[in-house]
Amino acid sequence: MTGLQAARLLDVRSLGVAAADGTPLVHEVSLTVEPGERVGLIGESGSGKSLTSFAVTGLLPSGLTASGSAILDGVEVVGARERDLVPLRGRTASVVFQEPLTALDPLMRLGKQVAAPLKRHLGLRGAALRSAVIDALAEVSLPDPERIAKAYPHEISGGQRQRVAIAAALACRPRLLIADEPTTALDVTVQDEILTLLDSLVAERGMALLFVSHDLAVVARMTDRALVLRHGRVVEAGPVETLLSAPTDPYTVELVRSARALDAALEVS
Ligand SMILES: Nc1ncnc2c1ncn2[C@@H]1O[C@H](COP(=O)(O)OP(=O)(O)OP(=O)(O)O)[C@@H](O)[C@H]1O
């Protein structure tokens, strides 16, 4: 392995994902994320964004198979045994999903859910665990963390639930955050607050970010470099500024055109 590869937090080469019947869903995706770097994955619904982000953390739904290579902090994820991936999740890389209820157990108090990774990875117990949970909830700017810790998911708002899911994902200070459409299920004002929160947490902690979204404006706000996926393939990649100012692939051209049209419509209204 060269020095450059060793320094990479995530190094994905020719990643493929196939359905149970062999139908290819993701083809030949290659991407890298360096420590502290922010990379976007953009594409329309069904383009393979989620499957790519699941495959690089070994979280593909059962029945789907990955091929190629995805090296996360030096560990080959494709073909890895589950027990070799458990220590990486939450510590090296954490995922925040579109719908916080996917990540949260509806029947468990929120404090317990934030506590789980702190117990598992950092071995915290008792008073140290309780104060780490409250700190984790306070860091995502939740009002009254003591109350939230005792509440169940249905007792707080959707935006607050996403903050708790972010708190749980970041509790063990992972080096890479994978955010898969983290604000798509939220209304626009809450969406903006969550993006601001993610932006500042990523900056403060010097975390790397792989940000997955169908929304070009959001990807442009959150990342410096992006890959455009279509039908499971990368059709274009580069600095976000270049994608916006001089897109070359017809699909990217269309994405930029519709994002600008929306912008213009908003300015008029
Ligand atoms: N478990 C599965 N079995 C078979 N096909 C699947 C499975 N999960 C996803 N797919 C298919 O794989 C393709 C890529 O799906 P993926 O969820 O990665 O898209 P996406 O870009 O994340 O879309 P969205 O933004 O709607 O989540 C789609 O055509 C989808 O129908």
Automatic annotation (TrEMBL):
Cellular component GO terms, alphabetical: plasma membrane
Instruction: Report how it sits in the membrane.
Output: Peripheral membrane protein
Q: Which superkingdom is the protein from? A: Bacteria
Q: Give the matching CDD domains.
A: ABC_NikE_OppD_transporters
Gene Ontology terms for molecular function: ATP binding; ATP hydrolysis activity
SMART domains assigned:
AAA
- Do the record's keywords include Acyltransferase? no
| Localisation | Cell membrane
Q: Where is the ABC transporter domain?
A: 7-256
Query: Cell membrane: present as a keyword of the record?
Result: yes
Q: Which UniProt keywords apply?
A: ATP-binding, Cell membrane, Membrane, Nucleotide-binding, Transport
Q: Which PANTHER family match?
A: DIPEPTIDE TRANSPORT ATP-BINDING PROTEIN DPPD, OLIGOPEPTIDE TRANSPORT ATP-BINDING PROTEIN APPD
What the record says about family reads: Belongs to the ABC transporter superfamily.
State what protein this is by name.
Answer: ABC transporter ATP-binding protein
Q: Which organism is this protein's natural source?
A: Leifsonia tongyongensis
